[in-house]
Structure formats: structure tokens, C-alpha cells
TrEMBL record:
This is BCCT family transporter. PANTHER family: HIGH-AFFINITY CHOLINE TRANSPORT PROTEIN, HIGH-AFFINITY CHOLINE TRANSPORT PROTEIN-RELATED. Signal peptide: none annotated. It comes from the Bacteria. One of its GO terms (molecular function) is transmembrane transporter activity. The keyword Magnesium does not apply. It comes from Halalkalibacter oceani. The chain crosses the membrane at residues 12-29, 49-68, 88-110, 144-162, 192-215, 227-246, 258-281, 316-333, 345-363, 403-428, 440-459, 471-494. NCBIfam families: bcct (TIGR00842). It is a multi-pass membrane protein.
Amino acid sequence: MEEKDRNRPGSVLIISAIIVGLFVLWGALSPGSLERAAEVGLGWMIETFGWFYMLSTAFFVLFVLVIAISPFGKLRLGKQHERPEYTWYSWIGMLFAAGIGVGFVFWGVAEPVLYYHDAPVGYTPETPAAAVAGLRYAVYHWALHPWAIFSIVGLTLAYVQFRKDQPALISSAFYPLIGDRIHGWGGRAIDILAVIATCTGVATTFGLSALQITGGLSYISPIPNSVFTQITIIIIVTFLFMFSAAKGVDKGIKVLSNINLAVAAVLLVFVIAVGPTLFIAESFVTTLGGYITNVAAMSLTMTPFTESAWLGTNTIFFWAWHIAWAPFMGLFIARISRGRTIREFMAGVLLVPSLLALIWFTTFGGTALNLEIAGAAPIGELVMGNVELALFATLGELPLSSITSIIAVILILIFFITSADSASYVLGAMTSHGSLHPSLFVKMLWGFLIAGTASVLLVSGGGGLSALQTASIIAALPFAAIMIGMIISILVMFSSDYQKEGKRTRKKRIRQLKEEIRDEFYDDMKEEVYEEMKEEVYEELKDEMKEEMYEELKEDLYDELNSDKDKK
């Protein structure tokens, strides 16, 4: 009954669906005005709060690293007896495929080449130094920082859900601070904001994925790269996602994620093997060293003395974009991380994807830069024009390009399906009072709404799609403040529970010590009592034997005397 009550439509579902619907209607009827309004908002946000994004994101990275190595790392996301629900491989596969894998595939080639031509401040474009910086900044935008953002939301929500038995809602993170008031309009406002940010962000990913799939198909076949093809792809993916959603997380997302991780690994190993292997290896080492050496400086560097807009249109843009994705990624990561310790959670959510980002971008981005610098393929022109073709143009310069391009399309397609499936699950949970098992109807509703949003904005032109992306980034500003509140909530919960765990551990140790002392005392006492009883029993037996021997001798003596008397 409680699960049925949770699955009933509530105010969060109704209000957020209406707001998203109105936004889509605006984009369909007047994409130009929506784009202008969104661009003005984005420009104001970056110019006014760029410093806030840089400082807060750097703080997020530092915070999660400290939490991972602190004594809090021993706490478990769930009850103390619970253990992980999914294997390590399936868990990492779902982390990678939930949504961020689309970004790896889409930007893995494009971003390093883009920064080679449009270099960061302090670098001359189209130079070796710009190529090194391009790879380093691409990894910087997709390694520790975004996963620190996702891990804070995922860690908080997993803890309040599985340790404090609160619903799967963003507002639940504030239960330790405001108690039952999270069920009022303040909590609903937080959840509505998270739903809108998630819906707009995922709809944009739908559009970008559709663009890349149709771009790839047009590159390897006569299929035209048109809006009609893009809409057809979205319709096909929607039906495939419905089938996956009906299977649930265990049989749907889990199976597809395992497949996708294997396909991505095959493509990655192939490019390393047949591509410029030595160049990729050298790029990996150089990028890793440059990243470790410069990550602190890159995290805390602004450009107040220059007129360059590079930082705002790239780094700050990506930080806002990742924060906009945090409700979606955080809720999904929380759902699949039950039973893991905080230290294990941080290792899987923070370090493994960061290492994958380093390998992926140096492999694909390094290969593309090698082709660009050698003049073997005009990758730079494609990035500036049709960015969705960059991956396929790079694969086209390697052996077996027709096969690898098909594999790449399959990879993007499965990423597309898993992103839609996980997004519909998260949105369903957020609009079903935090139910971990939202109804199929609610998941389908959000799936169709997201697909419809992406389709309408693709039909209405790029202005609508870019405006949607910009709007989700603007929504990230208040959510960054919400994340700071989450950190305070985390510290309150961890401190309280760590003290309780410490008390329980001390009581357990005292109880064990008492038992050990009692057992030892019992053994000693038993030995002493045994020795005493042994002496007593020995003396008693000795006395009894004396008495018995005396009586026997006496009787024998009487018998002998009587016998002698009879003889006489």
C-alpha cells in the first residue's frame, strides 16, 4: 500500500511536467527568442558567478578526497550487515553507461582537437604546446571534477536512503538539517528544480546522441544526415528503451551496461593497437603528468586581466553542465551503490572513471591530433563545422574503418538506450515520492516527454536545442548551492554515525574483553577447584581405603585366630 501511494502522481510530477511542457512549447513556437533569452542568462551567470563555479568545484574535489581517506570511509551505504548488490564489473559498467559515457564518445575526439585550434589562455593555437594543453584540458573537464560533483550527490542520497530510510529524493539529503520539513513546499521546490535540470539535460543528450548516430550513419552509408533521420532514430531508441525499462534495473540497464562496457573496451583496444600506438602511449604519460602537476592551478585559475572568454565558454561551461547533471547521475549512482563502504564508493565513482577518461581521451583525442598535425585528415574542420562527425572521420583513417564505424554506432546507440532508461528511472523515482520502484507508466511518461522535447527542438532548429542545453546549465546555479548544503548534511550524518559506531565498537570490545577475562578466570578457577577437589578426594579415598584395609586385615586376623582355635 505504501509503494502504491508513492507511485501516485504528486505535485512534483504535475508542476515539473507543466514547466517542461511550457518550455518545449516556447522552443517549438519561437526557438530564436528562447535562444536569445537563454544566451543572455548564460552570459550573465558565467560573468557573475564564474568564480563561484571554479571555487566550489575545486572544493568538491578536495572534499571527496578527504572523505575517502578519513575514518568516515569505513562507514557503509546501508546497514552494517548489507553487502554490494552488484558485482564490481556491473557497477562500473552502469556508472559509465548511465549517461556520462555519451560525453566520452561525443567529445573524446572533438575536444582535444577543438582546443588545439582554439587554445586556452597562454597558449598559441596550432602548436605542440597547444596540442598538449588540449589533451590535458579535455581530461581535466571529464576526470576528477565531474565525478566529484556526481559522487557528492550520490553519496548523500545513498546514505539517507539506505542508512536513514528516507525516500529517493534530492530533498531527502536535508533531512539531518531540517527534519520532517523536507516534506513541505521547501522540499518540493528542491525536487522540482532537480527534475527540471535533469529533464532538460537528458533531453539535450537525446538530441546530441541522435545527431552523432545520424552523422555516423551518413558517414558510412547513403542515409542522409537530416532532421527526419534524427527523429526516426529517437523513435527507434524510445521503443528499445521501453523494452529495457520494462525489464527493470537488474535485467535492463545492468545487461546493456555490461555489453556496452565490453564494446567500448573492444573499440578502445583496437584504436590503441592499430593507431599511432607509440604516440598514444607518450600522450598518456605526458597528459597524466601534466594533469597531476597542473590540476590545482587549473582548478583555481581565472583570467581577470584578459578579455578572453575561453574559460567561460569551456571550463566554467562544463562545470555548470556537470552540476546540472548531478541530480540525475547522483540518484542513479545512489540506487546502484547500496551496501558499499564510502571508501569503496569513492574508489569506484571517483578514481576508475577518471582513469577511463584519461585513457579514452588520450587514445581517441591523441589519434585525432596525430592525424590533424600530420595533415592526414581535416579533423579540425569537422570539429568546427559538424562536431558529430569527428569520431567517424578519425576511425575512417584507420584500418577496418567500415567495421569500427558500425561498432561505434552500436556503442552510441546502447549508450543512448541506457541513458534514456536510467534517466526515466531517476525521473520516475523523483516524481513518485522517492519510490525505488517507480511504476512503468511514470517511467514511460518521462521517456516520451524527454524524447518529445528533443524531437520538437531538433525540428525547430539548433537554436531550440542549444537553448535547452543553456537552460539546464542556468538551473545548475541554485543546485550548486544545494550541493553545499548536502556537504553540511553529510558531515552532520557522518560525525553522528561515526561516534555511534565508535561507541558500539567500544562496547563490543569491552564485552569481548569481559568474556575473555571471564573465560580466563573460569579456567583458572576450574584448575584451582580441580586441584583442591583432587586433594580432598585423594584424602577421602585414602582414608576410606585405610578403613577398608583395616577392616579387611582385622577380618583376616579374626579368621586366622578362629581357624587356629578350631584346630586345637
